[in-house]
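Hi U.,

Before I forget, here's the chain from the pilot set. I'm dumping it here mostly so it's searchable later in email.
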Amino acid sequence: MSQEEGPREEDQPAAKRGASRSKPAKARALRAPLEVGSLEKHPIKKDWYILKVQSNREDSIADALKRRIAIEGQGDYFDEIIVPTEKVSEFKGGKKRVVKRKIYPGYIVVHMELNDDTWFLVRETPGIGDFTGSGGKPTPMLPHEVHKIVAKQEEKAEEEIRTVIPYSQGDRVRIKEGTFENFEGEVDNIDKANGRVTIMINIFGRSTPVELEYWQVEKL
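Structure:
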């Protein structure tokens, strides 16, 4: 080897030769993309919560909350939003009609994960007051509460129509029509299933039971 020639690669130490070759491979390894799914997502845990809302606006407030959830892209953190109702029959102007009545006026229930973003979204929706709870902390519904309120709303296939009778046992009433019109008496029994009431009236000095449609009497 002449003096002008530099050291050949085979004359270099083995460790040094390996290091010079390994640098490009190491750089490529650092630039390799992360595998899809290598980062675990936070599992979403939802509970049922009761929200205080403005009375007589339960339906419109529930709709407003649904729209805001969609706009904010928070749909993964919310499921059902329910305004608990029941079907009841009532008489007005001598005509029977079936209407939906709020079971808990001024409240709606929502299935959601509670975090800073969802809490703020709910609280900033117009018409919503606050979560129910103690010490200013939202409290999830208990299992028996969920069954009582939520499960009842899901039993729509064979929903029973309940008759609302605005009287209680012992109330004084007046009969509005029929054979005993204008007689006064006391409510003795209430048949909610059939919408009838039994009134105790005085006939010839004797207390006599008379069964009537509940709309045939009025409270004194």
